[in-house]
Prior knowledge:
Blueprint: H1 19-30, H2 40-46, H3 51-59, H4 74-80, H5 88-91, H6 97-110
Amino acid sequence: MTGPSVWSSPNLIQDDRDKNAILEAMSEFINGRNLRGQTALLISFECAFSIETVKILLKNGADPRIPDDNGETALDLAVRNERYTELFKFFMVKITDRDLTDMTRSLRLSKR
Length: 112
């Protein structure tokens, strides 16, 4: 077997695997989607998890730009929820100019 074993459970990786393979598998798991197209990061916002939980997801490869089936991203949710203002410094590492434009548009729309 060349890569890590991945399951749909918290026991994501078996022991004695290459660190890069583990990180790759974690990224695929973290950015996987449920039936509504939500990633773990989107679910963490919806369920009002702690900011520390969101930070852990981001530090381990969660992509805040992945939209759900309605086209909403974690960036959109963070823009509309003042509770998550602190998370912008973590998002800034992963976003592009286009994402910033989208965030600005989302913020303007949410204030109407």
